[in-house]
Design brief:
Mean pLDDT: 92
Strand content: 15-25%
Order of helices and strands: HEHEHEHEHEEHH
CATH class of the largest domain: Alpha Beta
Shape: globular
Number of strands: 6
Strand order of the largest sheet: 1-2-3-4-5-6
Length: 160
């Protein structure tokens, strides 16, 4: 979807009642600024994330990470939080080894809020080590019904 189509879709979503403050744009600064949103996410190591955060400290800037080095660089460049993963087997990362328990535990000790991503659902959320500031999910929201999503949410709050 191009920027114009995305702006149209997101405006429609907000007009239907979706909270604007819950929207996070993936690396499209034009859409972020056109809609006056407050959060943007970048892929691992994207120097645009660091440059944008330096120029716009009021915007929440996050980045996907897969290593301690990436988490450290994000922290050193003032990013607000990172997504770390994939933490469990994930349909979107077929055949790619998930992070180990040791890697997850080291990630949450990096002095920056860390969100877990990848393979999170009802049967895996209880296996996350303490310290994650939240979870991110794609297939959970795309492939499950509202009651299943609520069950994951309840499990998250029981384990925090």
């Amino acid at each position: 979807m191009n920027s114009v189509g995305l702006i149209f879709f997101l405006n429609m979503l907000v007009n239907k009642g979706f909270p604007k403050d819950k929207l996070i744009i993936h690396s499209n600064i034009r859409v972020l600024e056109a809609l006056r949103l407050k959060a943007i996410h970048f892929k691992e190591g994207d120097p645009m994330a660091y440059a944008y955060k330096a120029r716009h400290p009021e915007i929440s800037v996050s980045m996907s990470t897969h290593s301690m080095k990436s988490i450290s660089e994000a922290r050193e460049n003032g990013l607000d939080h990172v997504f770390f993963g994939h933490v469990f087997e994930s349909a979107s990362k077929k055949g790619v080894r998930p992070r180990s328990l040791d890697e997850m535990e080291r990630a949450v000790d990096m002095d920056i809020p860390v969100m877990a991503i990848g393979g999170i659902g009802q049967h895996t959320i209880g296996d996350l080590p303490d310290g994650f500031s939240g979870i991110c999910a794609i297939s959970l929201f795309m492939d499950h019904n509202l009651e299943e999503i609520r069950a994951v949410r309840r499990a998250w709050y029981e384990n925090v």
